[in-house]
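User: Predict the complex.
Assistant: Input components as received:
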Amino acid sequence: MTSTLGFAILAVLARGDRTGYDIAAAMRRPIGFFWTAGHSQIHAELQKLRTACLVGYEARHGPGPQDKKVYHLTDEGAAELRGWVTRPPKERPERDELVLKTYAAWLAEAGLVRRMFADQLAAHEARLAEYEREEAAFDGPPPFGDPRFGNYATLRCGLGYERHRAEWCRWMIDQLGDSDSL
Amino acid sequence: MTSTLGFAILAVLARGDRTGYDIAAAMRRPIGFFWTAGHSQIHAELQKLRTACLVGYEARHGPGPQDKKVYHLTDEGAAELRGWVTRPPKERPERDELVLKTYAAWLAEAGLVRRMFADQLAAHEARLAEYEREEAAFDGPPPFGDPRFGNYATLRCGLGYERHRAEWCRWMIDQLGDSDSL
DNA sequence: CTGCACTATGTCTGAAGTGACATAGTTGAT
DNA sequence: ATCAACTATGTCACTTCAGACATAGTGCAG
């Protein structure tokens, strides 16, 4: 009954022991590119994982009102995670506000729509440049079995996504007339 | 304070008057490709839109315990919708289970991962074929200002997405070795 | 020595969303 | 005639999630 968020946490823990705080940091980057969660959600989920014996922790002295808890995967947790990885993902409903706006774009002024897409294009190009820098830091794909393979493969996905998205923005801008209204 | 779902409903109503049931059908296809909602959510949201005077309805006799309600946009609703279309979309957190699995894929057997990606690839290719058939039904992009422009532009986005995704799946399968384990 | 950013854990409220339950007339096939 | 599928509206319980609130020690800069 572990939720997808639970598996996201297990996936972080598979790379090394972490506190809840550290996991929350990983949920911003690099996991944040494909799964996000606030720290409130993470602490609650860690308690559930604890109850299910998929993780354990050692309390250590640290700052804050409570001791800090360094979490680790149990053997059971590792087995659950390995099983989950190759189970077909359940498809989630798509929710893309920009595409929804596009569906209704015929109601608006072409100039305003073009500006919105120009902004989106700029954002995609910035992210693309960032991902390309990250890719350059790799020396080709790491071998499967290396945790860095996960990082590289997801980066490849992000790269492809940003390219597709940028191209679509360019197509939209083209459709909206070249140099008139603004 | 209208939610994105509210605007999705207004976008449907901008194309013609509908009952809640009809809106729910549109939320499966074609809107469902980029925004989904169950009928329970839709009926609740229609009541809110009603209270905010963005839609109105006429009750007509129809099947079922209550009269059917044919909803229409008010002038106020149409203005709200037009204003929303060109406001920059607020970015939602990405949540992609397949990419999350990929991040943890180094833990699993390559053969099982390859099979999962082969299944995904098949699904993307099927959707791609469907979208290409739909695109062929258009005689090039309709003019901006025509509601059909919205359908065509979102279809273009879907086409690009499926191609990017299929390509990534093929890359993954390549990485996982060509003809050994199964 | 003051104040800020960071580490660190947790609770609570409310919104958004999913799926089941409830009800009932119309239409078409067998 | 009967049965299933479709039209049609709505409620309820539950889960997920985001953001605010609460608390408090450490380490560094000015």
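Chain B touches chain A through 70 residues (CB under 8 Å).
Let me know if you want any component modeled separately.
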